[in-house]
Amino acid sequence: MPDWRPDAPDDGRTHLEESADFVRRNVADLGGDPERIVLAGWSRGAKAAVGVALNPEGFDNWRPRAVVGIAGAYVTAAPSTGTVPLEDLRQNSDSLTPLPVWLVHGTTDPVVDVERSRELHTALVEHGWPASLDEVATDHAGVIMTEFVPERQRCLPSTADHAVEAGSLTADVLARAAGLAVPNGAAPTARTAKWPHDDTRRQGRSPSVPPVRP
Length: 214
What we know:
Elements: H1 13-26, E1 38-42, H2 44-54, E2 66-70, H3 85-92, E3 101-106, H4 115-126, E4 131-136, E5 146-149, E6 154-157, H5 161-177
Helix pairs in contact: 2-3
C-alpha cells in the first residue's frame, strides 16, 4: 500500500493486516491468482513483508508465494509482526517451509546500510532458504526509481541514470518473484536477479538522500 500508517500506535500493524486480508479475499475477483501473491516492501515496508514470511502467526498463518525486501533492515521489530525478522528466522526456520526471499539494496544507501540486506541474505542461505540479493549503485530512494524532494517531504519519480537503472532492476525482481515473464531488455543496464542464487552485485556511488525512519 502506498500510504500505510507506521506512525499509528501499533506501528501500522492493523493497517497492514487488513490490507493483506483484503488482497487475499479479493484477488481472484480482480483477475489475480490467490496462489501467486507476493509481498514486497521498501524501507520499513521491506521489514514488514519479510516479517510475514518468517512469523505468519499474526496473519492467520497465511504466507505469500514469495517476498521482496527493498532497502530494508531486519534486525529490529517488523511493523507487521512486532518481532525481529532475523531472530524469527533463527527461531522458526525448522518449523516453516522455506519460501523465496528476494532482496534488493543500493550500495550507497545512507539511510539503511546495505550490510543489513547482506546479513539477512547470509542467514537465509545458511538456513537453507532460497534467497537472492541484488545490489545496485544507488541510494535509498533511487532503488525504487525516486528521489527525495525536501520541499515536498516525499520521494518523487526520478529520471537520474542511477535511479532508472536501479528501479528497472527492482521492477525486474518483482516480476520474477511473481513468476511473470520479463521481456528482453526490460532492465538493459542492470544485472537481473535469478532465483535461487547467492552471488551479489556490489558497485558504484550515487547522490545522497535525507534520513527517513527505516
